[in-house]
Write a structure and sequence with these properties.
With about 675 residues, this protein is of the alpha/beta class. The protein is built from 27 helices and 14 strands. The strands form 4 sheets. It has a 6-stranded mixed sheet, with helices on both faces. A hairpin with an 8-residue loop joins β7 (about 385) and β8. The longest helix has about 30 residues, at about 345-375. The protein starts with a strand and ends with a strand.
Length: about 675
């Protein structure tokens, strides 16, 4: 146990410290509390002296078992993408470096040096050692980092907002390329070990991808249990393959010297820049380290990287380089050329499983970032289905799934080989990494109190390297890099349209609404017929009378004995505790205001949240409660604050939004919808 000087004093709890005991002055009996392995700290009173019990052997074993499970899980989910990069990264980078000419030692050592130091600087230093510390209540990812930076500044500035949506949109661009290039590169091994299967590569790839997306609706909880062990076998296998060929040419170890990579770029500026864009393929997936922080925790991810993933990748890349120096013809497919003949077919099968796992991690990430975007109000509501009763992160969003499948199949049909797809891969990831670096600067300078100059000194080199990779990938724009940019740009346009449209709609309806205080005063002085029960009116503006309330008074001419103006707020934290979930304010004997707070990683459940209000004295009975919702029918106005095409796009997005009843998990039998027509 480690105590830190703080006010009040806080005690940091190790995962295996499951019980704390302390003695309060004047009391002979000890007091104790139990902590779960995910608890972070306890702040006791100043007058109490704390003593930690030694953990029991069974508790220690249990905690170690959980830690091992988390570390194993991080190998399967976090490192699936970057772990399958050896299938194509070295091959494509070296082909670009030699430009169709003979294989030279200078080119091989230069490419390997660039790969090694890209893994060291971009992944190890930037993400593993620095950004993993920038957690938003345990969660990571671009949108989480945007929320953290906004909190550090005290507001969400337009610049932070744009950085956040660009980073999120580029993640979707990466999500359609990763499954395509990963599975295709693995199945292409069939053509190496058995040329007769060359014609079957494309149909088999398409069949695997369709099957992968088809099983998403059944949930990935059971399949995920096998991810870790399979990927451990994968990393051990690729390390063994690399180790077998290190002796092919001992000169390969000179690539540890970064001078070989730097001199290659200086001596071959244009070819070097093109090569740099393909070297970046070796670090794609590094951003997943940060995005999956909330699933596994900082320490398991770090240990998995240093103990297994990083050494295995480096050994395999160096083994490929040594083999190509000894046998230049192996450049055709150096990864599979390393595999001894008896193990070639099993290796194709293992590589296919590894690439499916890498694809699964990206697909799951797309679901998670979509839920975050919905909660933050960046996109319309979409139907979210939970596929696990125990893991809240196991969700399925059919529209996202179908869009990704369509994009992946189009890419496979358009590019047909992993070499062609390599030109399209990387640019989306580089943009995400640049965004992470810029947002990280805000967090380090403001939230960590480093100051702008110290933060800039730390972050600027990483941003400069990421931006250099981005420029290098821009050279592939006409060769296929336009695909993720087009996909990501479409997402950005949809988000900006949704944001602008909802703001204009809110401004227009605000002029037509009546202040809630005015309505409450009028109804208090001249109440209509009062009927028993509770009426809950959902609204985004608690200061104005909800449209559904006005229509209920106008047409039904009745008022319930309990009326609740309900507002749902999304915080800039991933989750909200039950103590902070509900806020109740009494307005009058007939009216109350209730605010439900949810984190951007949570799916709102209104009845469950309202049940918590019982602790605050509100006797909530779902069977005696009616929920009144306003449904707006939008029509384009003659004059609007957006172009005509954007008006139509906003209206289409509004129509595509999932029903509020389903999204907020309100029982359909308790809902009354009131329709209104509004021009935008």
């Amino acid at each position: 146990m480690r105590a830190e000087d703080a006010s009040p004093p806080a005690v940091k709890i190790r995962p295996d410290a499951l019980r704390l005991r302390w003695y309060k002055p004047g009391h002979s009996a000890p007091r104790s509390i139990r902590l779960g392995f995910m608890d972070h700290s306890v702040a006791p009173r100043r007058t109490e002296t704390m003593v930690a019990d030694s953990p029991t052997p069974s508790a220690t074993a249990s905690t170690r078992g959980r830690f091992v499970a988390l570390t194993l899980g991080s190998v399967g989910v976090v490192y699936g993408d970057i772990g399958t990069s050896p299938l194509y990264a070295f091959r494509e980078a070296l082909k670009a470096a030699v430009g169709g000419g003979p294989i030279t030692q200078v080119a091989v050592l230069g490419v390997l040096s660039l790969i090694l130091w890209a893994l060291t600087i971009v992944v190890t230093a930037k993400y593993v050692l620095i950004l993993l510390r920038a957690d938003n209540n345990g969660e990571g990812g671009t949108l989480s980092l945007m929320a953290l930076a906004s909190r550090a500044l005290g507001r969400r500035t337009p610049t932070l907002f744009m950085l956040g949506i660009i980073g999120a949109a580029m993640f979707y661009g990466d999500s359609i390329i990763t499954p395509a290039i990963s599975v295709l590169s693995a199945v292409e091994g069939l053509a190496v070990v058995a040329p007769a299967f060359e014609e079957a590569v494309l149909p088999l790839t398409i069949a695997i991808l369709i099957g992968l997306f088809a099983v998403q609706s059944h949930g990935t909880a059971r399949v995920a249990a096998f991810f870790g062990p399979i990927m451990v076998v994968w990393f051990v296998s690729i390390a063994a393959l690399g180790f077998l060929h290190l002796a092919d040419d001992p000169h390969i170890f000179a690539a540890v010297n970064p001078a070989y990579g730097v001199m290659f770029l200086i001596d071959h500026p244009m070819i070097g820049l093109v090569t740099l864009g393909l070297v970046f393929l070796a670090v794609t997936g590094g951003e997943a380290l940060y995005a999956d922080l909330g699933h596994f925790g900082r320490r398991p991810i770090r240990i998995a990287w240093f103990a297994l993933v990083f050494p295995a990748l480096v050994i395999n890349y160096f083994g490929q380089g040594a083999m190509v120096l000894a046998n230049p013809a192996a450049i055709e497919n150096p990864f599979y050329r390393m595999v001894p003949e008896p193990f070639q077919f099993p290796m194709v099968g293992l590589a296919t499983m590894a690439t499916v796992i890498a694809s699964q991690a990206v697909i799951t990430g797309a679901y998670s970032i979509t839920r975050q975007a919905i909660q933050l109000g960046l996109i319309p509501r979409l139907a979210i289905r939970h596929t696990s009763e125990t893991h809240s992160g196991q969700i399925y969003i059919s529209r996202v799934n179908n869009a990704l499948l369509l994009g992946v199949l189009l890419l496979v049909a358009l590019f047909r080989t992993s070499s062609n797809l390599a030109s399209a891969y990387g640019i989306a990831v580089t943009m995400t990494m640049v965004v992470d670096g810029l947002l990280g600067f805000v967090v380090i300078s403001k939230l960590w109190h480093w100051g702008p100059w110290a933060a800039a000194a730390l972050v600027a080199p990483f941003v400069l390297i990421d931006f250099t990779f981005f420029v290098a990938n821009l050279l592939k724009l006409l060769e296929g890099a336009w695909v993720p940019l087009l996909f990501g740009g479409t997402i950005v346009m949809m988000i900006l349209t949704w944001q602008r449209g909802t703001w204009l709609l809110s401004a227009k309806t605000r002029h037509l609404e009546i202040p809630l205080g005015t309505i409450v005063n009028n109804l208090t002085q001249k109440p209509p017929h009062i009927v028993p029960g509770t009426a809950v009116f959902l609204t985004s503006d608690p200061e104005s009378a909800p449209t559904a309330l006005l229509h209920n008074l106008k047409h039904n001419k009745v008022l319930h004995e309990h009326n609740v103006i309900l507002t749902i707020v999304t915080t800039d934290t991933p989750r909200v505790s039950e103590e902070e979930r509900v806020r109740i304010a009494r307005v009058s004997p007939l009216f109350s205001k209730v605010e439900l707070r949810f984190g951007f990683m949570e799916t709102p459940n209104v009845p469950k949240a309202l049940a918590i209000a019982r602790k605050q004295g509100w006797q909530f009975d779902i069977m005696a409660t009616s929920f009144f919702l306003s449904r707006r029918l939008l029509k384009p106005a003659a004059k609007s604050g957006m172009p005509r095409w954007q008006d139509k796009l906003f209206i289409r997005l509004t129509k595509s939004a999932s029903d509020a009843t389903d999204f907020f998990q309100i029982p359909t039998g308790r809902v009354v919808e009131v329709g209104t027509q509004v021009t935008v």
